[in-house]
Amino acid sequence: MVLSLLEKVARYGIRASAGKGYNKVKGLVLEPYYRHKHRRAPSYSNPSDGELKQIEEGLHSHGNTLKTLTISREDFQEFKDRLPFPSYYFSHDAVLRNEKLLEHFIAYEMCNLQDAVSASASANAKDFLYLDVAGSGSPWVQVLNENGINAVSIDLQLSPSFRHLEFYREMDATKTDFDAASVDGISLQCAYEMFIGDNDRLLVDECVRILKPGGSVIIVPLYMHTHYCGYSTLEYYGKGFADPGATEYIRLGFPGVPFSRKYDVEKLNERVISRAEQQGMACEIYALQDKDSLGEGVYCHFVLKMTKALDT
């Protein structure tokens, strides 16, 4: 226990470790109160396999471009071997670690980062720029830079673990400091659903501005449901963070989420797809196939790829 505490202090710093400890104690104290207060609140459930098929049918009916995404287990393993993440990354949960690595592999492939790795020794390597949005707690960008890829991670608040690295930057993703048409690829791993209020729409606008012609933004997973909804954790439930018109559910088991949005087909098109297409982006939605072949507990199903036109 003492060793674990020292490791956390070394990784996060004294102040951040103390803050994490305080929030954990606070949560333990307040959780019984919130559980009683919200005891009649509806609990969130992920869509079933049948409901995912229903959503796919709705996307087809709406005229969205829906493609299948099949990933080779061998290719996924080669990625893990070629760009190994630190052992501490989700070390407490091997199933969740595998899911997170899969999300990064999908971003890696769809942003053509494999080409950037191959060209990392060339004189033009620094002309390539990949942006990881809302990833300040992840070693992903550090791994990429160690392998010669010019990559930057931005978030509203940086993890003390990476604050000393110049390629981790504190920045609002909806209004960045990057020049227009300066970024080759962008991805969000398990993050876009947390862009509350109008920030999901504003992020689309900013991606259009900063992407180079032909560049793509990848949202993985794209969380969807049969109806427009989302969940808040105990301390945020009922406090106005949910979208107007969205069913608000409660999520037990962890704290810290004001609202995690789940689009239905209509709202996805209204809030995201139409806005992107009106600005010259081509939008493709992918449905991951044969998830069981990629490891236990894979839950990523939909992926959204939005690509800026070459003539913009």
Mean pLDDT: 90
| Overall strand count | 11
Main sheet: strands, sense, barrel = 8 strands, mixed
Can you tell me the CATH topology of the largest domain? Rossmann fold
For the record, the count of structural domains works out to 2
Order of adjacent strands in the largest pleated sheet: 1-10-11-6-5-2-3-4
Helix count, DSSP H or I runs of 4 or more residues: 9
Q: What is the CATH class designation of the largest domain? A: Alpha Beta
**Structural class by helix and strand composition:** alpha/beta
Report on this structure.
The protein is 37% helix and 20% strand. It is an alpha/beta fold and 312 residues long. The protein folds into 2 domains: 1-37; 45-308, Rossmann fold. The protein has an 8-stranded mixed sheet, with helices on both faces. Strands 8-7-9 form a 3-stranded mixed sheet, with no helix packed on it. α8 links the parallel β5 (183-189) and β6. The radius of gyration is 20 Å and the shape is globular.
How would you sum up this structure in a few lines?
With 312 residues, the chain is α/β, with parallel strands linked by helices. It has helices at residues 2-12, 14-37, 49-62, 73-82, 94-110, 113-118, 140-146, 199-210, 265-278; strands at residues 66-69, 130-133, 151-155, 168-170, 183-189, 211-220, 229-233, 247-251, 260-262, 281-288, 302-308.
What is the secondary structure topology, with strand pairs?
Elements: H1 2-12, H2 14-37, H3 49-62, E1 66-69, H4 73-82, H5 94-110, H6 113-118, E2 130-133, H7 140-146, E3 151-155, E4 168-170, E5 183-189, H8 199-210, E6 211-220, E7 229-233, E8 247-251, E9 260-262, H9 265-278, E10 281-288, E11 302-308
Parallel strand pairs: 1-10, 2-3, 2-5, 3-4, 5-6, 7-8
Antiparallel strand pairs: 6-11, 7-9, 10-11
